[in-house]
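Explain this one:

_____
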Amino acid sequence: MDDIDAMFCHLLGEMDHLSQSLGPAADAAEVDPDSQAEGTFSIGFTDLNESLNELEDYDLDALVDGLGSKSTPSEERLLTDQQTSSRTENQIAASATTQEPEPAAAIPPQLNSAESSGGLQMSQLPTKADKIKLALEKLREAKVRKLIVKVLMSDGSSKTLMVDERQTVREVLDQLFEKTHCDCSIDWSLCETNPELQIERGFEDHEHLVEPLSAWSRLSENKIYFLLRPQKYVMFTEPQEFYMWKKKKECLNGINEQAKQVLLKEHFGGSTLIVPDLQGMLYLKEDGKKLWKPRYFVLRASGIYYVPKGKTKSSSDLACFVHFEKVNIYTTNNFKQKYRAPTNFCFMLKHPCIQKESHYIKFLCCDDEHTLLLWVNSIRIAKYGTVLYKNYQAAIKRTSSLQTLHFNAHKGNYNSHSRQISPQPCPAPPKTTNVEDYPHEPPPDFIPLPPPGHTQVWDTSLPPSASLN
């Protein structure tokens, strides 16, 4: 094991063997098939009944209606039971009419039929328990896999969603936007957490959510969170950080928006993707030990390479560390305490089916948070390519349309409210009447007496009409 090249070649071979041997029947002998099948229908709940009870009524109705228009065996059995019950009731009613004609004649026929039809309708109204029972049968017989997923919020609350295998993460995010009425920012993400490994990963918008969730074991404590992650598309909002990372920070801060668009067009607008030319010293955790050794790593489109001991940094001397098509990248926390890492700025590369500690997991540690940001997001660029850029463009477009819809809806509600409370026109003040306005009318004959103690002075030199003014 002193030869680093031989060690890595051995590990790569073991990883290839593991990825080929991973299959759905690996643990079939140890797990009850019924419980395993039931566990594949819900994520974040102890059992399927609990998850169905968490669904709102309209979601439960949509689940039953969406699981196929064809009658399933459970529906056929239910229909047969209803028909048998109906025939039995008709026979009982007919025999009762034959044996006791007087009471039947005392009831008006129209009222009798109305009461019987009303009672039949009341008996046919399905309760939530009936809906859950039917949903359980349909889920087991459906051709399209559906999951009842509990999504946790940052404030501790949760939302329950029904997700099928055809839905992408982007579509699930749109559902959460409608349920939570949040600001629809492009930074909103669905993240998975693994408490046992102390890792997390943000799902990419193009991923089908059911696929990675199906890799979880039935008793897994993994959870899904709906969180704001400003670093989700930082490679497109701040491309100079990744494609000009060798320059000084003062130079990068002076990049304007036009220069950023040029960088995006140059590296993502062509026929081929240009991966950031990232390289540097990282700490590698040794297998089965809490020892970390510095190695010089280089990022390429196909994977991460390292410089073997005694070799140069030229491309011909580089050795492959890991290929991206078989692994996902996860960020970690508290590895300084758990694994004695040099810092807490670590990330992990592993196959998505590995849910517990394994020597097939690759641990790497960075010196600071900025270096971690560069490596994690540059690896995402190399792994997903132009699909990641299309996700970003779709998120921008979708966010703009949702914000426009919300603005128009708010504006419509405001205008409707304004019309309801619009002030009525005030009545015009009463006009005052002056003698001058009506010169053809004589003054009144009666003039009220002045109050006691008041002395009125009359000007006898003027006519009576003038003294009134």
Observations:
- The mean pLDDT is 75.
- The chain has 18 helices and 13 strands.
